[in-house]
Design brief:
mainly alpha, 6-stranded mixed sheet, 50% helix, 5% strand, DNA-binding, globular
DNA sequence: ACCGTCACATACACGCAAGC
DNA sequence: GCTTGCGTGTATGTGACGGT
């Protein structure tokens, strides 16, 4: 009966919120406020969770008094009860609808609709146009393709027709992004740049307003979990683009002094499975594995909010290339300005990060990856090749995080990269590092020849054992530079604008729609601590965490650098620990393995060196440590082999045998590292311009000392 | 060819009030 | 102070139509 309290004219007003001129305190003439958008509901929930009392009435009162949207006791209670679901929906908001989204849309053919969205997105990104008739035609095409309807059944009755009205709404739904991209493409200043000189001038003028520490560049790289040089592309899918499900994409964002850095954006199709992963606010999950505009926007927003929280006055500028996903609305950025490189120049070599940061980052990560592969090669005897040379995404992400956590203290690397790009006032850098003997050599970019040599050596070992399944990825190893370049920067790992074929769109949408949202558990923890966690992104970690690990042993590293130590079940650890289980097969393999190890030890590194004719190694020229390691290795192996040559011993002590086996593998790995280090150190002395990052990663005090004199700088640069 | 409006359909979410 | 059943309002997809 009470429903008739409202006079009919209330209902006739479709948008009561537009009539706010009516005073609200007149009860008899009260207008209903508009419904809350999903974003507003989330705002209420956040406020509620962060409030002292967590009293629904109090929260209700607060937002009721604001009078921005309708809210009642029962409504709000339902929001609280459905919090997980609401937050799940909130994650799926796009830039197009996040301002208006209220009710979950129910499309007739959601998948086909999504296909058309992707297509339309791409068309606007590529600055093309499409007529409405064509759009409707494409909808039908997608419909046929998605449901695998053969063209022979091509009668109009099987395909639902789409009307003009439908199209109008479709275009309105996608209007926000379209206008955004259009604005980018009509930026006359950006597109009028013709020469590199113009561009440098333009950027210098723009950047002049900022201090060095406020100038950032962001750029993406990716890593394939199964490098094609080891495993030929199986092409189980029909994608014409690099498969996003097989890679992890990383966006580095650093400033010109290297002083303040943000955790890199990491995207993959690996769903966060534990609390740690969920708490990392720079780690993003996308069902297709692709970096989306939304993810990129969220990342930048969190960077912005971090600055706004810690230093409200600080304004920074971020340099970006013309990757489609970089085009985001900027009106919400209070502390960030985005500046794009001129797309018309087609990526000439002048981006600061390309002068060393990217290369060294890739080198470090690939080095760790190779170590994992090596470990799997020696330990995982019963694994297939494709398994051996495929990383889990957890491992890869861990490696990326660890690498970053080490590299971010290398301010020298970053500042030098920026300096060499010549986009910033050079005197400022020279003032900071007065000892730098730089000339105007533009093409000079930094690299870690030490690590690169080690990688090449490891690749050679693999090549000699004929483990390369696919030689396409790597050129002749005689051209050492090409060799390493192809390994570090294979085409499949480039992050660039791609053109999706219709079949790609279908495939991606299929992937997006498989599985029915399994993520309805344990959203509680992350929700209540969102505010807290966001602040973690930009927090420079304390120097105490710079612990460097001399060995390549990865297990030890996971315990440091960003992962809380009270979390015993990191996926990586779990995997490595269960790697060796006592089984008859493993036990039987031990004898053979011991032989293997011994042959490598007694003829030290012959396998590693067989083809490195440029440097001849012998024991006397190696440093003492290496010789010692080799001798100890020989000694131990001899004893062990004797001991385990008796069958009853191996049966009786099978567990111990496995332990020994494991220990020896670690030992082998570490002495390999030692060896490679001494090998590379010798080599590096011959190089006129190398970059020895291992020295640079010393304690800060030592670095300062190095910077003090010109002589030590030469030594520092190799 | 493009753009906008309208009527209609529908499912979800709102507000009330009673119940816990 | 929080939850729930019920009747209905609201948001929004859809397609027809008409104007420019």
């Amino acid at each position: 009966m009470s429903h008739f309290h409202f006079p009919p004219q209330d209902n006739s007003c479709k948008y009561p919120d537009l009539m706010n001129t009516v005073p609200e305190n007149q009860d008899h003439n009260r207008r209903r406020l508009r419904r809350a958008t999903l974003a507003e509901k989330i705002k209420v929930l956040d406020w509620h969770n962060n409030s002292e009392r967590k009293c629904q009435q109090a929260t209700l009162q607060y937002f009721h008094d604001l009078g921005e949207f309708a809210i009642t006791k029962s409504t709000m209670n339902r929001w609280v009860l459905n919090e997980k679901e609401l937050r799940q929906d909130y994650k799926n908001l796009t830039l197009n609808n996040n301002k208006v989204y209220k009710t979950k849309p129910k499309f007739k053919d959601p998948e086909v609709n999504r296909c058309l969205e992707l297509l339309y997105d791409q068309i606007t990104n590529e600055n093309c146009t499409i007529t409405e008739r064509e759009l409707i035609q494409r909808w039908s095409n997608f419909y046929l393709m998605f449901y695998n309807i053969p063209k022979t059944d091509f009668n109009s009755s099987t395909i639902p027709t789409k009307s003009n009205g439908w199209l109008h709404h479709f275009k309105r739904r996608t209007a926000f992004k379209r206008d955004l991209v259009k604005r980018f493409h009509t930026d006359s200043e950006l597109y009028s740049v013709r020469t590199l000189e113009d561009e440098k001038l333009r950027l210098k003028n723009t950047l002049a307003r900022y201090q060095l520490s406020q100038i950032y560049q962001l750029d993406e790289v990716s890593f394939k979990i199964n490098p094609t040089c080891f495993i030929p592309n199986h092409q189980s899918n029909s994608l014409t683009i690099p498969d996003p499900a097989e890679r992890v994409t990383v966006a580095l964002c650093v400033n010109a002094t290297g002083s303040s850095v943000f955790a890199p954006l990491i995207v993959s199709d690996l769903e966060p499975s534990n609390k740690i992963m969920k708490s990392l606010k720079n780690l993003f999950y996308s069902k297709s594995g692709l970096l989306t505009t939304e993810i990129f926007f969220k990342y930048l927003k969190s960077v912005n909010d971090t600055i706004a929280q810690n230093a409200p006055q600080e304004k920074i500028v971020i340099l970006l290339d013309d990757l489609y996903t970089h085009i985001v609305p900027q009106d919400e950025f209070t502390n960030i300005e985005l500046v794009y490189f001129a797309p018309s120049l087609n990526k000439l070599d002048y981006y600061p990060l390309d002068f060393g940061v990217i290369r060294i980052f890739k080198t470090e990560v690939k080095y760790s990856i190779m170590q994992i592969f090596f470990k799997k090669l020696t330990i995982g005897m019963d694994q297939s090749f494709s398994k051996t040379f495929t990383l889990s995404k957890e491992d890869l992400i861990s490696v990326i995080m660890d690498t970053w956590n080490t590299m971010k203290y290398n301010t020298m690397l970053t500042s030098t990269s920026f300096h060499n790009s010549q986009l910033i006032p050079s005197f400022a850098v020279l003032n900071q590092h007065r000892s730098m003997p730089f000339d105007s050599d533009v093409s000079f970019s930094l690299r870690d020849t030490n690590k690169e040599t080690q990688i090449v050596n490891m690749l050679r070992v693999i090549q000699e054992r004929n483990l390369f399944r696919n030689h396409k990825g790597l050129p002749s190893r005689k051209h050492s530079d090409l060799y390493i370049d192809h390994f570090l920067f294979p085409a499949e790992e480039k992050v660039e604008n791609v053109h999706l074929q219709d079949s790609d769109i279908i495939e991606l949408v299929r992937r997006e729609h498989t599985g029915i949202d399994p993520d309805l558990e344990s959203g509680q923890a992350s929700s209540s601590s969102i505010q807290h966690n966001i602040s973690q992104i930009g927090q420079p970690e304390s120097a105490a965490q710079t612990t460097l690990h001399p060995t390549g042993s990865n297990e030890s590293r996971y315990l440091h650098n960003g992962y809380p130590q009270d979390q015993p079940t990191h996926p990586t650890q779990r995997q490595h620990n269960t790697n060796i289980v006592p089984s008859p097969l493993t036990t039987n393999l031990i004898m053979g393995e011991l032989d293997n190890l011994k042959s490598q030890r007694t003829a030290p590194h012959s396998a590693m060196l067989a083809n490195s004719n440029d440097v001849s190694m012998n024991k006397s020229s190696a440093n003492g440590e290496t010789v010692e390691a080799t001798e100890i290795g020989k000694l131990m192996l001899g004893r062990l082999k004797d001991f385990f040559s008796l069958p009853e011993n191996i049966n009786h002590y099978s567990n111990s045998a496995i332990q020994f086996h494991r220990f020896l593998n670690t030992y082998l790995q570490e002495s390999n590292d030692l060896y490679m280090k001494s090998y590379a150190n010798q080599k590096i002395n011959k190089q006129s311009r190398g970059y020895n990052s291992s020295q640079n990663l010393e304690q800060p005090s030592k670095r300062r000392q190095l910077e003090g004199t010109t002589n030590s700088f030469d030594q520092f640069m190799g």
